[in-house]
Write a structure and sequence with these properties.
It contains 6 helices and 9 strands. The chain is elongated and about 70 Å long.
Amino acid sequence: MNFKLFLFYILVIHVNTLFAESKRQEPSVFLKYEQTLTEVQDSNTKRTYTFTNNKIIEKADNSDNTLTYLKANPLSSSSPRDDKSELNTQDKLSKKIKSLKEKIIAKAKMFLGTPYHFGSKSLEQTDCSGFIQQVYSDLGIVLPRTTVSQAQRGVNVDFDNLEVGDLLFFCTYKNGPSHVGIYTGNDKMIHASSGAKRVKYDNINKLYYKKRFLFAKRLALKKYINTGMTPVL
């Protein structure tokens, strides 16, 4: 090969290499560079972007040239507006659930004094599971008729973490759940008592109920609110 032609090829390769280096989008693994993060907020959208700032501090050829660029990282971006919207949605849902629980207790109070009668479920007379079913039914929430079936709904709740509206199940006259009441807060429940022959308040810390307590269940009120339908909880 002609020596001049050979030098020309070498020159072309060198120029192309320099051009490629200047167009490089990311730092080469053969370069040493410093990396810092910079956050920039868009004043219009209020979105915050995190940029990776890479500065070459040493090249393989030991030149003093430096190359600095900013690379946007979309995975690190955040939107205060979106976060606020999500918090508002959660806050609204919590308020709706609280409001529904208040309605449940208000409806249960309407039964106070109603005579106990096994197999009934009205304001005239009712048994424990009929009372529970009727209270929720009047609010558009469908529950099964019997205590045993109602005990299969919802999720288990620890006795120390009870919330208003939770269902309390007891073993009173046979194995398994045979009695149910609605927790109203402050260690009290409303239930149709066969012993007192009426719907009444009782303290759940009474020895009689403490000894017979089986478990508590929390119904999926969130499901009812989100669907706007009449779910079987």
